[in-house]
Design goal:
This protein has about 375 residues and is an alpha+beta fold. The protein is about 30% helix and about 25% strand. Strands 13-10-12-11-15-16-14-17 form an 8-stranded antiparallel beta sheet, sandwiched between helices. Strands 3-4-8-6-7 form a 5-stranded antiparallel beta sheet. A two-stranded parallel ribbon has the order 1-2. The chain is globular and about 60 Å long.
């Protein structure tokens, strides 16, 4: 504990000095998500010295962990108790030495295939401890769901990309692993039919957990994962149809979907001028008219559509998403690399920009944390 207190004091001293000198700092854990964001500026401030599970009560479904702890380490500890992070956070580790951290998971706010059914990272975030831009150690929230009086400040940190403060500890709600799971495959199904079917299933009491529609050659294939009670999953398999897949064999495919290593994502390497676009739309939105006849990969029961297209198609893609009440942003820029970001956050609302700017000034008045990562100028 003394070593951890020393590491925390060192980080606080560095933040204090950076604020005094107006020196930008780039908060970094495993760096597995450095590809995302407008830019990477500042001296690297490594959080990995803040490591370890502080408390874990399986019977209470709560874990408190230091922000620099490898995400895989936390997931392994939960798995030993038959529990998990149900929102399936992506790691995006490109090499065996890469290790996504828990703090990075919260800061990025990204969720995997089950997001539409179980909720996002922020929905499981109970509390955080952070160092703000004044080098003050602040604690928000706690270790139970009903602990909020006033603003739920801890959840602001989910998806803030380190612009509001450096996370040192997080408390998370966890859930038991579902007693039953099954994946159904539906072959030769066009995108429009897949979306209609997903919409219909969504209105029924089915244990839907995740879905993925992908174009394979001239035909489309829909994968639907069910999780829940044994009786519910078995009944759904009988009523929904399709081909039931072997759980052990298909598990790697769902991980590949989460980590964006499916062949559909890898195909972008053949077109280096293409960016990976993320279109967030209502799940009930129909097939979108996309520039160049692009065919998306569809997740979250229709609410998330990945598109590969040049960044010059920005206006057309944003118009297509906006027409159905959604938004479009660059997730991986064509120019993004190991040390250079380029993904665009969708902050087109002036009111939203103003709120973000005020929050930024309140938590980080000197503007030293991850400048330019989310928005130009702060």
């Amino acid at each position: 504990m003394q070593g951890m207190d020393f590491a925390l004091a060192q980080i606080a001293d560095r933040v204090r000095a950076a604020a005094a000198d107006q020196t930008p700092l780039r908060i970094r854990g495993g760096g597995t998500k450095d590809f995302h964001g407008l830019a990477l500026h500042g001296e690297v401030l490594d959080t990995r010295a803040l490591r370890g599970i502080l408390s874990y009560e399986p019977s209470e479904l709560v874990v408190t962990v230091r922000a620099g702890t490898p995400l895989a380490e936390l997931e392994a500890a939960l798995a030993e108790q038959g529990q998990c992070l149900p929102f399936e956070p992506p790691h995006f580790a490109k090499t065996p030495s890469d290790a996504a951290t828990v703090g990075g998971m919260v800061a990025a706010g990204l969720s995997g295939p089950a997001r539409a059914s179980v909720g996002a990272v922020r929905d499981y975030l109970l509390g955080v401890t952070l160092i703000n831009g004044r080098a003050e150690l602040l604690t928000f929230g706690g270790q139970v769901m009903k602990n909020v009086a006033g603003y739920d400040v801890s959840r602001l940190m989910a998806g803030a990309w380190g612009t509001l403060g450096l996370l040192t500890e997080v408390s998370l709600k966890v859930l038991p692993v579902s007693p039953a799971e099954a994946t159904l495959r539906f072959d030769h199904i066009p995108q429009a039919d897949a979306l209609r079917q997903l919409h219909a299933w969504g209105g029924q009491p089915l244990p839907l957990n995740a879905s993925c529609w992908v174009q394979d050659g001239d035909s489309g294939t829909l994968y639907v994962r069910l999780r829940g009670a044994v009786a519910a999953v078995e009944a759904a398999c009988k009523s929904m149809g399709g081909t039931r897949m072997d759980n052990a064999a298909v598990a790697a495919d769902w991980v590949a979907c989460r980590e964006q290593t499916l062949p559909w994502f890898a195909d972008r390497a053949r077109r280096p001028d293409h960016a990976l676009w993320r279109l967030s739309v209502p799940a009930t939105a129909p097939v979108l008219s996309l520039p160049g006849g692009a065919t998306p990969l569809v997740e979250w029961h229709g609410a998330l559509r990945w598109v590969q297209a040049p960044e010059s198609d920005a206006e057309a893609l944003r118009a297509a998403a906006s027409a159905v009440g959604g938004s479009a942003s660059v997730f991986v820029a064509s120019s993004a690399g190991p040390a250079s970001a380029g993904g665009h956050f969708d902050l087109n609302s002036k009111a939203l920009e103003a709120i973000h700017a005020r929050l930024k000034h309140s938590f980080d008045p000197a503007g030293i944390f991850n400048p330019g990562r989310v928005a130009r100028g702060w």
